[in-house]
Amino acid sequence: MPLHIETGEHKTLVKVSGEMTIYTAAELKLALTPLLYRQQALELDLSQVSEMDSAGLQLLLAAKKTAQQSGYPLHLIMHSHAVLDALELCQLTAFFGDPTLMPHADHG
Amino acid sequence: MSINLDQALQTYIAEARELLEEMESALLTLENDPDNSELIGAIFRAAHTIKGSAGLFGLQPIVSFTHIVEDLLDQVRNQQLAITTTLIKDLLESRDHIERLVRLVAEQGASLGDDEQALDSQLRLNLARHQTARQTGLPECTPSAGPEPVSKEEGHVSATSLWHISLRFGPDVLRNGMDPASFLRYLGTMGTLCAIETLHDALPDWEHFDPESCYLGYELDVDTQADKGALSDVFEFVRDDCRITILPPHSKLAEYIALIHDLPEDNDMLGQLLVKTGALTASELALGLQTQHDSPQTDSSKLGEILIAQGAVNEVVVDAALKKQHQNKENKTKEGRYVRVHADKLDDLINLVGELVVASSGASLLAQRSRDSQLQEANSTIAMLVEEIRDGALRLRMVPIGDTFNRFQRVVRDVSHELNKDIALVITGGDTELDKSVVEKIGDPLMHLVRNSMDHGIESAGQRLAAGKPARGTLTLNAYHDSGSIVIEIKDDGAGLNQAKILQKAQERGLVAANAVLTDQEIYQLIFEPGFSTAETITNLSGRGVGMDVVKRNIQALRGSVELDSKPGQGTRVQIRLPLTLAIIDGFLVRVSTTHYVIPLDMVIECVELTQSALADTQGRNYLNLRGEVLPFVRLQHYFDVEGARGRRENIVVVSHGGKKSGLVVDELLGEFQTVIKPLGKLFQRLQGISGSTILGGGEVALILDIPSLIQHAIDQELSQLSQYALPRQQTQPRVN
Fold first, then answer.
1. Is B290 found in the same domain as B173?
2. Residue A106 in domain
3. What residues in B contact A57, CB-CB < 8 Å?
4. Which residue has the higher pLDDT, B266 or A101?
5. Same domain, yes or no: B310 and B415
6. What angle do CA B500, B506, B508 make, to 5 degrees?
7. CB-based contact B124 A106, cutoff 8 Å
8. Is position A102 within any domain?
9. Phi and psi (nearest 5°) for B546?
10. How far apart (Å, rounded) are the C-alpha atoms in residues B597 and B599?
């Protein structure tokens, strides 16, 4: 479950590839844990996320809340179609507060 | 859980298949009848059901594509979009794609390959071009009052038609393989999700957060025409794990009452009535009934009271249902109900019935010998019942050929477009029934013959007009029963078969001698030779000469025959004759020396005694004068080389096949006899003249004669004998069927 991590001075950029589902949720949580406690802004690049289910969504929700509590922002960027679908279905785009690209014409 | 899902999935696939077939034939009819709102409704509902059920199984590609089709159909339904040829074409192609998706995703559990993806995107583009309005995300939601005005009871004015659903998923939902999101999506297919609130307050802090447990809840408002049962069914698989509350909107009440009044009369109890109308779910009814049992009365009005007290249903609805029940005490309407049965079970049943027939015959035989009249009578009753069971069981396997014929509507349409010809398909005799296994195997040969007719038979519009014919060609498919066989005809009013060309081609290929004289039939039958084709151009449909001989072989494998008839300039008729061979047949038992044979009763015309004088008249040849007709006959004893002296009294059984009569000389006639065909072993498959065996009441084996092949073989034998004396100019004779 590859997480590509780039640490910078002011923020950490994490790129998630593959599924964010019940099958990978535990692994992802483990990998994200150190990143959430860096006392830095965190950016999750979701462009390579192929699939997202409720477990994946839940993970993002938990991460967002934790980040909010610690006082450092968590941003989701480059949402893939799968991520957009899931967020729209559950009407959570507003909660995360990140700008998303307009849905593509043939995205169903 | 997975076992249930698997069976349910199989049912879904079968149901989707049926719906897709209905969709296709409705679309084809709609093309010629574009204002038929019933058809449009039917097509819409088919797409809607396919999509909805697919959602339940999480078959996302099917849901997503069908959703677009359904959208389009909805617009057509609301008269926002007109039916055009292009639209029908795109819808037909989309329907094909859905069929492909069902096969790929549902049956094989695979995902779309690149080709399919490309096709998928292309079709979506095509469909999008027809769209007048785009759907983006959740639409503006105004509570709708429904398309028809619904008269409302006083005091029950509807405020809104939104359903409120409250969901709190249990912690194990994700672990059990369910995904809350899929339920939301599915609800979205049943109507419009007007409002969704995701509740995640139950999420603990990161340290204690178990990513595989579910802490989510949802508050939803749905605008849907679905009833409480349908909505409740959505959560069937998670009912035990979650807290679910469904609050129906008030305006639904008036619809409940209207529904009750519209129901056909029946004797259901009040409770079932309410469940049927959707006022209650079955579980609420069960609860109500349970409470009722605790108090001794069982009067139906009591049931109504209990239900109201528990708040499960409204008083108005109950009164209407009561009224309905009191009104209806008679007249049960029969609705067409179907039961899905596995084909193997049917075969097992028929096998058993066959054994039953044999056993019953054996018992009857013993009863007759016992001279106990009461026993004989009892056995006669049994025999009668057994016959009825037998007939009933066999009828189960018969299907009308109309279904197969109807599939050709699409073929004719597509191919005529491809060939740029105007061809209409006329179907008659669709009710004619034949055995299921035969139906399955006759499809391919029929397809080939139809394509041939369209490709080579019917001319282009221009050519037809020049020949004084109507520009539109007609292809007719017909079926009927004829003396124990089923006859399938494919007729066209095209150019007919060109005898001269066929003869020339045959002579070129050395099949026929240079100056041989052949009858019309013989010339036409040449077409069935392997590699034969007089087509000038080879299309991707036909013309390569690999078709007709395969067609003939397939038909012969079904123990059938095929004949051609043609008039130049007027058209061609192909006639396929198939036996109704079933597991059990009525036969005529005969004895030849020490062996018994069974002749299919359908083919027996009459029995004639072969008197000494008649025998003398034949002068040693194998035909006699039957009331002015020439009747050729075969001596079965000679034919089968049965040992024994020739019987003192001989009889001839006159049989008819394909319109021709022949005679079989036997010793003794033993009468009508029901029999189960036991197939011959593999060793004897190629035996000509015998189609099976059976066991007689006494335990002996009788052989069942295959009349067509027996006669043909006898003809062949004679021909080969004659050719020894033939004049040298005749070389090989083509086969006469």
1. no
2. no
3. 181
4. A101
5. no
6. 100
7. yes
8. no
9. -105, 5
10. 7
Residue B168 pairs in a beta bridge with B217, B243
B632 and B706 in a single domain? The answer is yes
Q: Are residues B29 and B118 in the same domain?
A: yes
User: So what's the pLDDT on residue B1?
Assistant: 42
Strands B690-695 and B191-199, sheet pairing: unpaired
- Name the residue range of residue A84's domain: 3-96
For chain A, the residues whose C-beta falls within 8 A of a C-beta of chain B are 22, 25-26, 28-29, 33, 36, 53-55, 57-59, 61-63, 65-66, 69, 86, 88-92, 95, 103, 105-106, 108
CB environment A53-84: b (16+ within 10 A), e (fewer): bbbbbbbbbbbbbbbeebebebbbebbbbbbb
Of B436, B401, B398, the closest CA to residue B576 belongs to B401
Give the contacts of B482 (CB within 8 A, at least 6 positions apart): B577
ipTM of this predicted structure: 0.88
With respect to residue B7, please indicate whether it lies within any of the assigned structural domains.
yes
A57, B181: Cβ pair inside 8 Å?
yes
Chain A closest-CA separation from residue B77 CA (Å): 22
Q: Are B405 and B523 found together in one domain?
A: yes
Q: Which of B117, B62, B118 is nearest to B95 (CA)?
A: B62
Other CB atoms within a 10 A radius of the CB of residue B730 amount to 12
Domain CATH for B45: 1.20.120.160
Tell whether B348 is covered by a domain: yes
pLDDT exceeding 70 applies to what percent of chain A? 91
CA distance to partner chain A, nearest, from residue B129 (Å): 12
Identity at B601, one-letter amino acid code: L
Which residue stretches of chain B have pLDDT < 50? 1, 133-160, 251-269, 277-278, 292, 295-302, 304, 306, 309-310, 329-335, 545, 730-731, 735, 737
Instruction: Tell which of A52, A53, A58, A101 to mutate to test the B interface (max B CBs under 10 Å).
Output: A58
Determine whether the interchain pair A89/B206 forms a contact, defined as Cβ–Cβ distance below 8 Å: no
Total domains present in chain A: 1
Q: Could you give the CA distance from residue A5 to residue A20 in angstroms, rounded to a whole number?
A: 17
Q: Are residues B635 and B715 in the same domain?
A: yes
DSSP assignments along B436-489, one per residue: HHHHHHHHHHHHHHHHHIIIIISPPHHHHHHTTS-SSEEEEEEEEEETTEEEEE
Distance CA B665, CA B580 (A): 25
Contact criterion met (CB < 8 Å) for B136 and A103 = yes
Q: Token pair for residue B448?
A: 């080939």
CB contact under 8 A, A54 and B174: yes
- Of the candidates B64, B138, B218, the beta carbon closest to that of A108 is on B64
Whether the CA torsion B395, B400, B401, B404 is positive or negative: it is negative
Is B185 in Cβ contact with A90 (below 8 Å)?
no
CATH for B378: 1.10.287
What is the number of domains present in chain B?
A: 6
Across the interface, do B125 and A106 touch by the CB < 8 Å criterion? yes
> What is the reported pTM?
0.46
- Residue B351 is part of which domain span? 343-397
pLDDT for residue A39 is more than 90: no
Residue B703 lies in a domain: yes
Contacts of A55 in chain B (CB under 8 A): 174, 179, 211-212, 214
Q: Mark whether B239 and B275 lie in a shared domain.
A: no
Q: Which of B579, B594, B618 is the last residue of a domain?
A: B579
The answer to whether residue B283 is domain-embedded is yes
Domain end point (choices B297, B329, B361):
B329
pLDDT given at position B97:
92
Q: Which helix (H) or strand (E) holds B694?
A: strand B690-695
Statement to judge: residues B647 and B630 lie in one domain: yes
- We report the CATH number of the domain holding residue A85 as 3.30.750.24
Q: How confident is the model at residue A57 (pLDDT cuts 50, 70, 90)?
A: very high
- Verify whether the Cβ–Cβ distance B216 to A54 is below 8 Å: yes
